[in-house]
């Protein structure tokens, strides 16, 4: 199984059917696999904080939801993560495709890319970086367990080492 | 119409439907009108109330789910109207208390005080059953229909702001756990 299918299998194994997303080229490699699986209910969103809000609502209703976004979009999520997820203890796994790091061509991606980990850390949220195919299963499964036991969002940061850098 | 009066009427006509209320007046009046385990009170995340309600609706397809939003919050998250229309949950009833002001921060006028028409914006986003109501009787008629007929519905209720009646305890984590347990068990 390739790393994308492994991540999808982990979400399925942990019972996370709702997938709210703002797409990018990297996360679409994963989302397009989920589109073919009737277990998943995909929700295209207009903003990343909306995606987290929807995923949070599915948890409040007794189910589970994940939010997919690009690193730039995490910058739109500081308030919702703080005033909803941390305040109410609503666990939502975040799958964040990293821009502004290895192989980046666009200077506009660099500042928020650099801010991703400090943003998460300042809110007290764990993050793990997926950068090697052989690590994806253990990190994904472990992060999902931590997310739901700790009842807080946990971020899986997906490196361009896995997805390939966008070339302009 | 008066928001508290409309909220009291609404709560009296609910059974097992979850309600998600926007921070400030919507949450305060809902609590005073009728605290219940199926009320989810927002305290922050302005602009995201309708998204949370949409998530609850998608995960609870077998019963109606109500959102008590505000004009200020919906204006911050207008894109969610498009997402609601795109997902088209039949069970979603999105009520917007439109007082044309950010009441919780001192009553500064919002865009609906001048030109913005939230029901028209909802229709433009693809929410076919979007309407604007001015009087309590119109509100009651719209809600009766929305609880019976397939949605998604967006009911923009024009209200005179008279101040919220109170506040629930500031215990969000307890509220989340109670709400979640109530939905899972009922």
Write the layout of secondary structure elements.
The complex is a heterodimer of chains A (168) and B (186).
Chain A (H helix, E strand, L loop, with lengths): L2 H11 L4 E4 L3 H11 L5 E4 L3 H13 L4 E6 H4 L3 H11 L4 E5 L12 H13 L3 E5 L5 H15 L3 E5 L1 H4 L5
Parallel strand pairs in A: 1-2, 1-3, 3-4, 4-6, 5-6
Chain B lengths: L2 H10 L6 E3 L3 H10 L4 E3 L7 H11 L5 E6 H6 L2 H9 L4 E7 L2 E2 L5 E2 L8 H8 L3 E5 L2 H13 L4 E6 L13 H14 L1
Helix pairs in contact in B: 1-2, 1-7
The pLDDT mean of chain A sits at 97
Element order of chain A: H for helix, E for strand: HEHEHEHHEHEHEH
Biggest sheet strand line-up of chain B = 2-1-3-4-8-7
What is the number of E strands of chain A?
6
CATH class of chain A: Alpha Beta
Label the structural class of chain A.
alpha/beta
- Number of DSSP helical runs of chain A: 8
Which CATH-level-2 architecture of chain B?
3-Layer(aba) Sandwich
**Residue share in helix of chain B:** 40-55%
CATH top level assignment of chain B: Alpha Beta
How do the helices and strands follow one another from N- to C-terminus of chain B? Answer: HEHEHEHHEEEHEHEH
- The number of E-state strands of chain B comes to 8
How far is the N terminus from the C terminus of chain B? 33 Å
Helix amount of chain A: 40-55%
Number of helices of chain B: 8
The gyration radius over C-alpha positions of chain B equals: 15 Å
Global outline of chain A: globular
CATH architecture identity of chain A: 3-Layer(aba) Sandwich
Examine the coordinates and then state which fold CATH places here, giving the name of the CATH topology of chain B: Rossmann fold
- Estimate the strand proportion of chain A: 15-25%
Distance between the termini of chain A: 29 Å
Structure overview:
The complex is a heterodimer of chains A (168) and B (186). Chain A is built from eight helices and six strands. With 168 residues, chain A is α/β, with parallel strands linked by helices. Chain A has one domain: 3-Layer(aba) Sandwich (Rossmann fold), CATH 3.40.50.970. A six-stranded parallel sheet of chain A has the order 2-1-3-4-6-5, with helices on both faces. In chain A, helix 1 packs across helix 2. The model of chain A has no long low-confidence stretch (mean pLDDT 97). Chain B has 186 residues and is α/β, with parallel strands linked by helices. Chain B has a six-stranded parallel sheet with strand order 2-1-3-4-8-7, with helices on both faces. In chain B, helix 1 packs across helix 2 and helix 1 runs parallel beside helix 7. The termini of chain B are far apart. Chains A and B meet through strand 2, helix 3 and helix 5 of A and helix 3, helix 5 and helix 8 of B.
């Amino acid at each position: 199984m390739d790393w994308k299918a492994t991540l999808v299998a982990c979400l399925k194994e942990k019972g996370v059917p709702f997938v709210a997303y703002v797409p990018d080229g990297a996360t679409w490699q994963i989302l397009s696999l989920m589109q073919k699986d009737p277990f998943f209910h995909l929700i295209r969103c207009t903003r990343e904080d909306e995606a987290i809000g929807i995923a949070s609502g599915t948890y409040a209703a007794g189910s589970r939801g994940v939010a997919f976004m690009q690193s730039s979009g995490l910058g739109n999520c500081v308030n919702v993560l703080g005033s909803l997820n941390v305040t109410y203890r609503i666990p939502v796994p975040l799958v964040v495709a990293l821009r502004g790091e290895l192989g980046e061509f666009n200077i506009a991606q660099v500042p928020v890319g650099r801010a991703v980990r400090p943003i998460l850390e300042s809110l007290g949220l764990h993050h793990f970086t997926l950068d090697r195919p052989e690590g994806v299963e253990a990190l994904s499964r472990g992060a999902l367990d931590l997310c739901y036991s700790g009842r807080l969002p946990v971020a899986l940061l997906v490196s361009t080492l896995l997805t390939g850098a966008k070339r302009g | 119409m008066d928001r508290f009066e409309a909220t009291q009427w609404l709560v009296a006509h609910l059974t097992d439907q979850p309600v998600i209320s926007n921070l400030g007046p919507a949450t305060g009046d809902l609590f005073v009108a009728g605290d219940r385990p199926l009320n989810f009170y927002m305290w922050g995340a302005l602009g995201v109330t309708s998204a949370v309600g949409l998530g609850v609706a998608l995960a609870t397809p077998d019963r109606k789910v109500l959102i008590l939003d505000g004009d200020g919050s919906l204006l911050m998250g207008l894109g969610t109207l498009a997402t609601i229309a795109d997902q088209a949950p039949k069970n979603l009833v999105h009520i917007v208390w439109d007082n044309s002001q950010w009441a919780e921060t001192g009553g500064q006028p919002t865009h609906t005080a001048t030109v913005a028409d939230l029901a028209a914006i909802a229709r433009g986003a693809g929410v076919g059953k979007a309407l604007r109501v001015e009087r309590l009787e119109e509100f009651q008629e719209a809600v009766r229909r929305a609880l019976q007929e397939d949605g998604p519905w967006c009911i923009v209720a024009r209200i005179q702001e008279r101040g919220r009646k109170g506040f629930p305890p500031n215990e969000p984590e307890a509220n989340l756990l109670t709400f979640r347990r109530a939905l899972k068990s009922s």
